[in-house]
Amino acid sequence: MSLLNETFTLKNQIKIPKIGLGTWQSSPEDAYHATKFALENGYRHVDTAAAYKNEAAVGKALRDSGVPREEIFVTTKIPAELKSYQEAVDSIKRSMAELDTEYIDLVLIHAPRPWKIMRDNPEQKKYFEENIDVWKALEEAYQSGLIKTIGVSNFDQDDLQNIFDHCDVKPMVNQIIYHIGKTNEELLQFCKDNDILVEGYSPIATGRLLDNADIKKIAENYQRSIPQLSIRYLLQKDILPLPKSVHEEYILDNAKVDFTISDEDMAFLDQL
What family does this belong to (predicted)? Predict the structure, then answer.
């Protein structure tokens, strides 16, 4: 059975396909064609975001693919800059309209702080209260059935703990950057301890792993490509990979990861 048919089970027992198609940095036209092609070739999980400005294209691809809506898992995100309850409510409504769907499978807070201070935050402003307000909007949409699962993205332990301390429904997913050479075992374990599935975006480091001789050597030992090895690496850590491609050949190849990396090779990749 293809890994495209396998799932992780979230805390609320909703099943989420183990591999998703990422659409970050995809133009609407590219996102449409990539999503439609992926769905026509077995993918059942697509990841978009309001900030990507391609939700409408993804939604059209869902309909044009001919795949029943209930068979597809769709993720979108509330922009990181929106930090009030009402802004979050409005964002969810806009995403539903853009996707043209009666429900969304997963909605995430895109980041705990606005992007402009995610890396350079001299005042160390945490936005804890604001994230609680946004989370309340997500909880309400979840409890009403508009959203099937809710979560966060780019949240560290303290950001997550803040939500835990003030929520009725805990996050079910934390989507973070995770790839060979950029791991976070402490955060990964913290999420696992709290029944949060970790999704890994940029599993190939937006292409930067392709020139790595050490990774290439291991991939060749399995007669696989570097992207396939990188995607498999995440799966063996029980992380859901979200590889992005707009090329049909690569979309197909990224799903051909039904092999096993040895414990020795996993350990070597861990320390790169």
Answer: Belongs to the aldo/keto reductase family.
